[in-house]
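Hi Y.,

Following your request, here is the sequence exactly as I used it, all 523 residues.
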Amino acid sequence: MSFMAALAVPLWAQTWTSSQIQNGINGYDYELWNQDNKGTVRMEITGDNGTGANAKGGTFNATWSGTCNVLFRSGKKWGTSNTRNHTDIGQITFDFAANWNSPDDVKYLGLYGWAYYKSDKVPTKRENGSNASFSNQIEWYIIQDRGSYNPTSGSDCKGYGEATINGIAYDLKVCDRIGQPMLTGNGNFKQFFSVPKSTSSHRSSGIIDATAHFKAWHNVGMYMDGPLYEAAMKVESYKCSGTTGQGSGSASVTKNLMTIGGTPPPATSSNSGGGGTGSSSSARTQATTCKTPLITYPTSTVPTDPYTACFRYTDNKCYVCKVENEGEFEGNLNTCASGWVWDGTRIDDNLTNGYWYYEVPCPATGTSSSSAAAGTSSSSVAAGTSSSSAATATSSSSRASSSSAATAASSSSRASSSSVAAGASSSSRASSSSVAASSSSEETSIRVLHTIPLKFRVRSLNNGTLNIESNSDAVVYLYNTKGNMVQAFDVPTGSSIVKTVVPTGIYIVKNSKTKEKQRVMVK
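Below is the corresponding structure, written out as tokens. Let me know if you'd prefer a different format.
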């Protein structure tokens, strides 16, 4: 069964007007952090235990004025004594809705928390490549809506890739924080970000598959594989001139249902704006059969329904559009209704790379005007990915434009001297005190929904990335032509995109579990 982040106890209403933290209010851990207690703040706890027909979970109302940096949040803290990583804890999903209004340029709505690197993954270099020692602590963010300021827009961050999760295309970035407050005082640590690629995807309600983000980070080289300290829904504002607080605004989180355990949500959950700066397009269902009559392909006219249109290609196989790769990509909105999907200009590269065209069984009769003879496809390959896998970093042949990760940085970190554990992108708030992990009937298994490949296969994409398909979890090693192991990847079952850190050239990829080897060009 799944754990709905709460026990069945009555609502405990409270109102806070200064920095405060309290765990276990109907199973949720709440926190208000106000830097230097400037201005006026108010946090009203309005939540319930997350069960029942009208459950709302860890909800709250918030107002602030004359503040520098203020953060309101609710979720779960496993604490510094926790030894389980996110995989051990199980599937983590949030179903949220919020309304907020603030003129502050620096403001964020989304998921937030802290976690740890495993001992063998603690970084030793800054994102610009220079040497530096780092803590094993990670401050992480999954942004859903924000003000005009992008926290990854500076020079201390680096883009690692992208992923489409719950129908939204995200940039995946890591930022350096040097000599800034963390869980154990000041030090050097990394920040992990998922930031919507387009402001049109900003939203203030919907489903957030936190586990899918964690896996996507892992698969592009952002290794948050140590114990998980916390996960929470947060509202934050930052506006300060010197020491004078100028922030103001209000927010109401009307739904915050945190589910731990169970199965992942659909890969393309519907997303609604609900008061945010924009909303993503409605989720589509992948067609798995060939609708007749077959269309003429290629065609300069987009089919009436591009999600079910089916054609037979020159390889005598039938295809429909692959829905999973829809999304914003470097300023271009790529969907099954994009003309280049149907005009034949990119089909051969896309069939090779496995993007945009989904093979389905051909009908017994009927032909298209392509040069293929009538017949039935000998196989039906359903190569889909779920939200629990790291999806969609692409080659230039797979999309309308090539992938290139922009470097960026977050804003400065600040901390309160109180023992309140809190945090946000413009300032890291953390407590050195230990928060005990609460017990629950959490499930620890994660159901993998994507299709399991029949064999081990590696394909080279652009920008030093590889597409690795494996029919089981495995460690994959990359060897140069001299036989030296130069990189290793933890690869989950399914299809993954991984980022190499080696020069362009020929390499040997070896699956440590099956001992299979494959030569690949890193380009």
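Helices lie at 86-89, 210-219, 339-342, 347-353.

Thanks again,
Q.
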